[in-house]
Amino acid sequence: GRQFPLILLLGRPEDQQTLHDLMTAPTLQDIPKRISDVELSRTIETALEKYTQINDIIVVETAIDQLYFKRLKNLLMALPKKDQQEVLQIVGCQIDLTNIIILFRAQQLNLSRKTRQAFLLPYNVYLRERLEKLLDATSMEQMWNIIAETRYHDLNIQVEKQVEDDELLYLLEKAMKQY
Description:
By secondary structure, this protein is mainly α.
């Protein structure tokens, strides 16, 4: 069977059973059937249909991210107005950083502009003015130059631009977690 090293089981005992059920699904198409959250199950099912076209997990990851941030936005809107702004800054930063990773990964996969745009999380806060440029970029170097013009310019300093593209994504994700 498949092996999933270093998965840390946390939470309630039923969460551990659900994780086991997901890990032992015979096919990818069986995974949504094992998820009790109907909206999440449908989201993954739809993403898996697109997965066969691109053949990269980015399709499923971005679909789940989009659902997660949609739900987070709904929770945020339920907060008192005075608390919304502070939480929005944190959430907005996380959305922007997630979009940066999505765009770099999509660039590495040489996906079309239309496909990259479909993967982006809505509700971005700070990158809004640079998203079009990032979508139009034709290389990772161009993307770095655009990011250098944003509040996330420190990411350029934390990650060496001269590394190989595969290593770049790992280092970028690591830097973003520290950010």
